[in-house]
Amino acid sequence: MSDTPEVRPPVVTPVRVIIGLCLVAPFVAMLWVGSYAKTDPAFIGIPFFYWYQMLWVPISAALTMTAYKLWQYDQRSPTAPQGGEAK
């Protein structure tokens, strides 16, 4: 017998799906340029194209923080798969 640990496929849980959505949302919002390639509505004189992108900076930070906190929660939960094998 070999001493190498058994390799298991990754487990998809609802928490991990939410984490993925939190991390993908900013990319989708920024890569879908047609949705914000316009000048109206302006906000305090700034065209929509610019303020929409700048609005996503704090939103992206909040979503990334949320994903990180959910990942920590998922790693601490008793049902989460453990990284090492017990001997």
UniProtKB/TrEMBL annotation:
Keywords: Membrane, Transmembrane, Transmembrane helix. This is DUF3311 domain-containing protein. The chain crosses the membrane at residues 15-37, 49-71. The keyword Ubl conjugation does not apply. The keyword Metal-binding does not apply. It comes from the Bacteria.
